Amino acid sequence: MEIDKIWLTGRFNPAERLDFIEVPMQYCDEPAHYLHRDAFRSWLELYTAADKAGIRLEIISSTRNFERQKRIWENKWNGVTLTNGVNVSTDEFTDLERAERILKYSAMPGSSRHHWGTDLDVNSVEPEYFETAEGIETFDWMHENALKFGFGQPYTAKSVKRRFGYEEEKWHWSYLPLSLKLTEAYPKLITYEDYKGFDGAQTAASMQVIEHFVLGISKPCLPQEL
Predict the structure, then answer these.
(1) Measuring CA to CA, which residue among 17, 80, 90, 69 is closest to residue 195?
(2) Which long-range contacts (CB under 8 A, 24 or more apart) does 96-100 make?
(3) What span, in angstroms and rounded, lies between the C-alpha atoms of 179 and 132?
(4) Smallest Cα–Cα separation from 184: which of 145, 210, 150, 152?
(5) Cβ 62 vs Cβ 120: under 8 Å
(6) Comparing C-alpha atoms, which of 147, 216, 149, 214 is closest to residue 182?
(7) Is the Cβ–Cβ distance between 28 and 60 less than 8 Å?
(8) Using one digit for the tens of pLDDT, what is the confidence trace for 65-85?
(9) Average pLDDT rounded to a whole number, residues 201-222
(10) Is the pTM value of this prediction over 0.90?
């Protein structure tokens, strides 16, 4: 298995990679979800165990390549999509302030774990869902059982153990046997010179995207060497 810049930065079409597979519709909310085959194999085992326990799991986001992440990022950067209810493209915000607000939940193109085929979002990306009875039950079951199948939560609540990075995402889970290797490779192969081809790329170094966001994850999801 060769880990290269193309894989790490999502500059590929997952439908054309032999190590990725399309997720059958019964496990997701719409067609054209892709995962690395190893991640999907373990997800099936986790899904089956959850189903037996009466827990509903639905993949609502999986592999997002560079171009798709670019659309998400630039729509927020340019005010097409509101960022937590705010249009950050106005003169009220400097470029760094725009980036800071977007980076609360959305990754810069080339830096997202969703590029890798190891990470997925389940059921809802709205924090309010995880305050409902179903959301609480789902998260509690995942928190208790996901690691048995190789899945960890990268973006836990902020604390002294995780000071930097995105806000808590109870919906986001990562297949660690593979994502740990990709996380370890990222700062060795990727530099800020690789951040280009999208609006706002000039802010990446100042925002310390690699150090604070790519590596700003919970300890179980972080290689021991880093």
Answers:
(1) 69
(2) 96/203, 96/206, 96/207, 98/200, 98/203, 99/200, 99/203, 99/207, 100/207
(3) 30
(4) 210
(5) yes
(6) 214
(7) yes
(8) 999 999 999 999 999 999 999
(9) 97
(10) yes
Residue at token pair 């340019």: 78
Q: Which residues contact 152 (CB under 8 A, 6 or more apart)?
A: 146, 173, 174, 176, 218, 220, 221
Question: Does the residue 30 lie in any domain?
Answer: yes
Residue 206 corresponds to which tokens in the numbers above? 């100042």
Are residues 164 and 212 in contact, defined by beta-carbon separation less than 8 angstroms? yes
Tokens standing for 205? 């170094």
79, 200 Cβ separation under 8 angstroms: no
CATH number for the domain that contains residue 160: 3.30.1380.10
Band of pLDDT at residue 93, cut at 50, 70 and 90? very high
Which one-letter amino acid corresponds to residue 199? D
Question: Closest Cα to residue 87, out of 98, 100, 96?
Answer: 98
Termini Cα distance of the chain: 21
Q: How confident is the model over 114-134, as a mean pLDDT?
A: 97
Question: What is the structure's pLDDT at 208?
Answer: 98
Say how many domains are in the chain: 1
Q: Which two tokens stand for residue 161?
A: 């153990």
Position 16 pLDDT exceeds 80: yes
In contact, 55 and 138? CB cutoff 8 Å: yes
In terms of residue numbers, what domain contains 208? 5-217
